[in-house]
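@channel sequence for tomorrow's demo:
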Amino acid sequence: MSQYRNSKTEEASKLNEEGANVFEQGNTARHHSDEYVRVTVTLATVLLLMAISQRFKTSSVRIGLAVVAMLLLCFPVFRILTLPQA
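structure tokens (generated this afternoon):
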């Protein structure tokens, strides 16, 4: 019976490879979406710092928070420009 070949075994092998490829594509897409979420959270932090800085009466504190927010803004802008786009 060494000549016997089950066609379903070959089909299963092909489907298994296809499934592995789709799974890898899904993992890559999840990684990209996680990066976009991190960028969004960082942008929200910048927005929060700018909003908090407006509540202080002392100008040095306002300027300090604004500077920190602007420095923090550089990271998500860089990430947005370097992340893959759909």
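heads up for whoever presents: The chain has one domain: 7-82.
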